[in-house]
Amino acid sequence: MSTPALTLIGSARFRPFRNAWMLLEMKIPFTYNPVGPRSDILDQTHPYKSGKVPLLQDGNFTISESVAINTYLGIEFTPCQYYTHRHVYIYRS
Fold this sequence. Notes:
- The chain is an alpha+beta fold.
- 29% of the residues lie in helices and 26% in strands.
- It has helices at residues 16-25, 40-45, 66-76, and strands spanning 6-9, 30-33, 55-58, 61-64, 82-85, 88-91.
- A four-stranded mixed sheet has the order 2-1-3-4, covered by helices on one side. It has a two-stranded antiparallel ribbon with strand order 5-6.
- β5 and β6 (88-91) form a beta hairpin.
- It starts with 5 loop residues before the first strand and ends with a strand.
């Protein structure tokens, strides 16, 4: 079995719970790294060096902020070809 491409960084006792829940509901395999805010691993991985959680790593791409992560997951892993949000249509080929 291969390692999942997605890694969620941040303790689910805080806002990363939203992201873990969405990943589980969408049945997307992911690696979970339960670290707290301002931990040493965040100094190495956080794109803005703010030390805040959550972070989601998808290969070489890193995104922060729980709402932004859930929006990314909804767009990137949606089973349909079109994603609609407030009159914005993003074609997914």
